[in-house]
Design a protein that fits this description.
Elements lengths: L11 H4 L5 H10 L9 H8 L8 H4 L1
């Protein structure tokens, strides 16, 4: 049962964008996923957000 008197958190706000590039590459290799690049600097432009985004949908 959830105690409504306790504060809740939004986990997605803590997880989105928090993976290290090395972790993405490791998982891509492990699961044979098609990634746009296979090194950190090549992958960076595909995952780095440089400009403010209006909401989570633009971010993901």
């Amino acid at each position: 049962m959830i105690d409504p008197s306790l504060p809740l958190i939004d986990l997605h706000r803590h997880l989105d964008g928090s993976l290290r590039l090395e972790t993405i590459l490791d998982l891509g290799r492990k699961h044979n996923l098609p990634l746009p690049a296979w090194d950190v600097e090549g992958l960076r432009p595909f995952v780095q957000v440089l400009d403010p985004q209006p909401g989570i949908m633009a971010f993901i």
